[in-house]
Amino acid sequence: MLVALFACRQDLDFDIGFHLRAGQWIVQQGAVPRLDPFTYTVSTHPYIDMLWLYEVACYGLYRLGGLVLLSLVHDLLILAAFGLLFLRLRQTRAPFGVQVLLLFLTALCLELRFLMRPEILSWVFLLLTLLALDQRQKWPPGRLLFLLPLLQILWVNTEGLFVLEWVVLGAYVFSDWLMERRAPKTLLRALALTLAASLANPYFLQGVLFPLQLFTHLQPDDVFHRFIAEFQSPWAIARQQSAPFFPGLALALYKIAGLSFLFLTALTLRRRKPHEWLLATAFFALSALSVRNISLFFFVALPVAASGLRDLLESEKPWAAKISSFLRSPWAARGAALFILLLGLRVATQAYYVSDRRMVHNGFGLDEGQIPVKAVDFMSRFQLGGTLLNNLAFGSWLDFKGPGPVFIDGRLEVMGPDFYTEFLNSYQPGGLKPLLDKYGVQLILLDHMADIPWVAQLRTLPDWRLIYFDDLSALYARKDYAPQFAALDFRSALAAWNMGVEPSDSVLTDLQDKRRFPLADWMDGFGVFEDYPMPLMRVGTFAYENGQFQVARDFFLKALQESQGRYYEIYYNLGGAYGRLNRPDMARLCYAKVLELNPSSAWAREKLGLAP
Description:
By secondary structure, the chain is mostly helical. Strands 1-2-4-3 form a four-stranded mixed sheet, with helices on one face. Strand 3 and strand 4 (473-478) form a beta hairpin. It has helices at residues 2-7, 16-29, 52-91, 96-110, 119-134, 141-156, 163-180, 185-197, 205-208, 210-215, 223-227, 248-267, 274-289, 294-313, 318-327, 330-348, 351-354, 373-381, 395-401, 412-415, 417-425, 432-439, 452-458, 506-512, 518-524, 534-545, 549-563, 568-580, 584-597, 602-607, and strands spanning 388-390, 443-447, 464-469, 473-478.
């Protein structure tokens, strides 16, 4: 139930756009791409699309049932992966309570990766490979020799992690050789056929070598590793004052689980088969290199941990008997069921996500609050297909629905490190104009919260004007492009937000006397639906960065009113707007409220002139 609740969310992954566009292009052209067909900046770069079969399937599902069907199929794949993982846990014969606990832990750690991405297919393929090898003694050798190469043909044409089948097979070959002191001929044949099957892709040897290119993203000096969060090590990510909200629970649980699994494996090493400790160690090292690999570690190491726990609980130690008895008791089962039910309620009300300020919404289809659907529709409706500079994440949806080629998108292996570095330099002071001049840019589509450095530079460039914005994105045009669109006025846009009447300061003063109780707010999350007022926060921040402090104040007050003063960061932003409006008394009220809700806020203490 909990996995299904986590999986049923509106998709907020930007990459789905270029997956759909690539699938559409392949169907229309009847071939896979060789050079990049979607950008005007790197159109001569090679495009090795090892996801082509996945993308064609995605496009087919989209044509059949739209984004709702596409997200539903991905949800079913996630459930299938956890079902296969449960089958592997059952084979360990560990106490059922241990199996449930480990599955619960895995769901909490992996829900961050419940996205419409081809890596979910890699989860399924990896687990099928492990299940087939675990059950190989029960099957005729010919069935194994048929299944594993067939799996490789599917894998090599849907996701770049197909080399993991080689790794797993190699570990089992080594394990059997070490235990039996002779070469496992059936496994060696399976490995040879699997390696040969990897050549069954449109790019032949070039496609087989493609994962080596992906592996470079895990190197510390790689530019993508430094700036793309999912390539960074989970052991290097730390909470910062400038970014106080991130899902720290998942990372903390991963670290605890990872070290515990290794300790269990070492403690029961004599009872472990060589492939068990070899794969658990190798995949832990892989997960330590990159956040995106954490899921792979859990799928491989969880049954090893369950076997280790089973062995400890079957020992003759008095404490082992007591724990084993407790895990088998009805009270343990009832307690676990109650805990999972309560957590499920917080997921269903979205309170689980809002506590980390994650903009995750339950349901199916696309989350238009995270994808620039409205802005791209505006561009297409008015045929604004001029030379475009775009936010990297927005490039994917522009690939699929935009009126023309894009500047950049999330296919990093196509973009290349040099071009990506050039793009990053535009965020440095004075770095935007050289990029605009070099590529003759006529339009800029940006995320007005993520691209604040661009917003600041555009304020100094008189040749550019704002012609469109919504709660996620903003579109700027050069003065000689699309003259039918006048520069937008922030104040005139307020009517679209039902804010024709300026919010009163009483919104703040009324909340000032109402003390919030964190425990009561947390308890509300079990039965009261929560939705963070991010659209209002985004527009308020955009107005603030454009020097429209009165407009910013109005939006922050509206956000405060809608959230009933629950979130301290809204008070902080509102205090900044009041400060800019030369209203220090109201600003101090805001910062005092910040300290009431978050006593550790160094920024608020500094604003109030208090000691750190």
